[in-house]
Design brief:
The protein is an all-alpha fold. The chain is built from three helices and no strands. It has a domain of 28 residues. The protein is elongated, with a radius of gyration of 34 Å.
Length: 118
């Protein structure tokens, strides 16, 4: 079970890192508007229109993989073994208390005892 959780956690971490990288590479919607009015260059790695489809679909696939891994980790995290019961049921019982005389509180000293003698 531990190996499965480790594999799922590794896939989740790799998909998260890849998704962060793809999101940082993509252009926002406002970047196209600025390029249309001539304020910036519109050159990109995959061309003007090809990057939107490839990067968007890859990001969607990675987001789905991340979501499925998260659900699987939540399932395995809440899975309890059926052989053991509660933690309290398996605890070692405490030693019985032997008859002990009650401790009486100390009687406060009177005010006369607190006055220093000469």
């Amino acid at each position: 079970m531990s190996a499965v959780v480790t594999i799922i956690l590794t896939v989740q971490m790799l998909s998260a890192l890849a998704m962060i990288g793809l999101i940082l590479v993509q252009h926002g919607k406002g970047a196209d508007m600025g390029a249309a009015f001539g304020s910036g260059g519109s050159g990109s790695l995959f061309g003007a229109s090809g990057s939107a489809n490839f990067l968007s679909r890859t990001t969607a696939v990675l987001a789905t993989v991340f979501f499925v891994c998260t659900l699987a980790l939540a399932y395995f995290g809440n899975l309890r073994p059926s052989s053991s019961g509660s933690v309290l049921e398996s605890a070692i019982p405490a030693a019985p208390v032997v008859n002990v005389a009650p401790v009486m509180p100390a009687v406060p000293a009177s005010g006369a005892a607190q006055i220093p003698a000469k």
